[in-house]
TrEMBL record:
SUPFAM superfamilies: SirA-like (SSF64307). This is Sulfurtransferase TusA family protein. The lineage of its organism: Bacteria, Pseudomonadati, Pseudomonadota, Gammaproteobacteria, Cardiobacteriales. It holds the Pfam family TusA. Residues 2-71 form the UPF0033 domain. Belongs to the sulfur carrier protein TusA family. It comes from the Bacteria. It comes from Wohlfahrtiimonas larvae. InterPro entries: TusA-like, TusA-like_sf.
Length: 72
């Protein structure tokens, strides 16, 4: 599983960097994205609703936002 550390980046950079990473992945691969942008939960859920990629898990820990995404 790939880990993408996007802490300290503000919108739209976490989405853009995640989109670039997903384009390089194979179907079925998983990526964990870590952000600190408080709006990232809304941004990622909106972004993923427009793709076929799947949000497997979302959680918040120590003011960091974690997204486990599966490439379709």
């Amino acid at each position: 599983m790939k880990i993408l550390d996007l802490k300290d980046l503000q919108c739209p950079m976490p989405i853009l960097k995640t989109k670039q990473a997903l384009q390089k992945m194979q179907s079925g691969d998983e990526i964990q994205v870590i952000t600190t942008d408080p709006h990232s939960e809304i941004d990622f859920k909106a972004f993923l609703s427009k793709t076929s990629d799947e949000l497997l898990k979302f959680w918040i820990e120590n003011n960091q936002y974690f997204f486990l995404i599966k490439k379709k």
